[in-house]
């Protein structure tokens, strides 16, 4: 949609009727194909994660050495009992893929939330108060950007010990810079507005102005950043698991499944391709939804 959509009108019985803001917003949502596709993918994956015990045909941890490396059902040697075959330990691959959605969604949402609290807090403080606080936080941002994120995450996980909660904390602590940059700039812009001066003149404290005036105006930007950081956190977890310092066996993780299948990828390629496709769909869904939210919530309403 273009800028003219802000004043979009509907014709009913030969009369022109101005659309309400709610109707314009709905038109933007349902007119943005990228957002609908991304939101649909994310919703589908979340539902799979929630109903994993009902959807998985087998126990994802159950091993059977007599059923090792069975091919998928479309192969001549495949069987309907294991639609996507089995891994090197005889575990049903479809069941492990389904349960792997829980790990990816949990770590993605958890890490993105940790980064949100750190980045938004620092960004609002730097943007609102300025001065030495702004300089100190800017120095912290520069130092963070100078560090090799993946190598630092590997070192921290190795020192602390791998677990889901450790991975969530470390990935979140290392992915807050985007929140800070955007919220700092937006807060500096909002701070100069007349309604902030009016709130201060009426006796509102800095805490009240931040909570009731600034943060509500940052909400749309924060939601957009969260969707992008969701995909980044999922890829970071997969990278750590692939390198052996993330989620540990026998927990089903897509990155770990790729690492376990890489030795047999030339004659059992589905062991790598299937979890790779799942990762691709989840990350592209998060990115499409984030890109769509940015377009939908922008004043000019860019076309999807």
TrEMBL record:
It is found in: Cell membrane. This is ABC transporter permease subunit. The chain crosses the membrane at residues 35-56, 103-129, 136-158, 164-182, 214-236, 270-289. The keyword Cell membrane applies. Residues 101-290 form the ABC transmembrane type-1 domain. It is a multi-pass membrane protein. Pfam families: BPD_transp_1, OppC_N. Its main location: membrane. Keywords: Cell membrane, Membrane, Transmembrane, Transmembrane helix, Transport. PROSITE patterns: ABC_TM1. GO terms for biological process: transmembrane transport. Signal peptide: none annotated. GO terms for cellular component: plasma membrane. PANTHER family: OLIGOPEPTIDE TRANSPORT SYSTEM PERMEASE PROTEIN APPC, PEPTIDE ABC TRANSPORTER PERMEASE PROTEIN. InterPro entries: BP-dependent_transpt_permease, MetI-like, MetI-like_sf, OppC_N. Belongs to the binding-protein-dependent transport system permease family.
């Amino acid at each position: 949609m273009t800028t003219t959509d802000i004043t979009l009108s509907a014709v009913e019985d030969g009369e022109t009727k101005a659309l309400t803001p709610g109707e314009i917003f709905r038109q933007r949502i349902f007119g943005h194909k990228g957002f609908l596709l991304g939101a649909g993918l994310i919703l589908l994956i979340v539902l799979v994660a929630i109903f994993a015990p009902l959807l998985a045909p087998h126990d994802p941890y159950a091993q059977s050495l007599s059923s090792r490396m069975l091919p998928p059902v479309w192969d001549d040697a495949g069987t309907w009992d294991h639609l996507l075959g089995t891994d090197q330990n005889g575990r049903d691959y479809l069941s492990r893929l389904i349960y792997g959605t829980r790990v990816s969604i949990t770590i993605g949402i958890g890490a993105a939330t940790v980064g949100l609290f750190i980045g938004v807090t620092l960004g609002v403080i730097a943007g609102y108060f300025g001065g030495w606080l702004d300089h100190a936080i800017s120095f912290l941002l520069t130092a963070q950007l100078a560090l090799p994120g993946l190598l630092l995450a590997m070192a921290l996980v190795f020192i602390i010990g791998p677990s889901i909660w450790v991975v969530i904390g470390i990935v979140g602590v290392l992915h807050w810079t985007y929140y800070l940059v955007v919220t700092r700039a937006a807060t500096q812009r909002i701070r100069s507005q007349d309604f902030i001066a009016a709130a201060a003149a009426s006796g509102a404290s800095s805490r009240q102005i931040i909570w009731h005036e600034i943060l509500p105006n940052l909400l749309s930007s924060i939601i957009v950043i969260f969707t992008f950081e969701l995909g980044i956190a999922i890829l970071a977890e997969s990278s750590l698991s692939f390198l052996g310092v993330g989620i540990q066996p026998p927990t089903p993780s897509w990155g770990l499944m790729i690492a376990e299948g890489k030795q047999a990828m030339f004659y059992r390629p589905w062991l790598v391709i299937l979890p790779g496709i799942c990762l691709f769909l989840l990350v592209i869904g998060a990115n499409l939804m984030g890109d769509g939210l940015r377009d939908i919530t922008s004043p000019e309403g860019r076309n999807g």
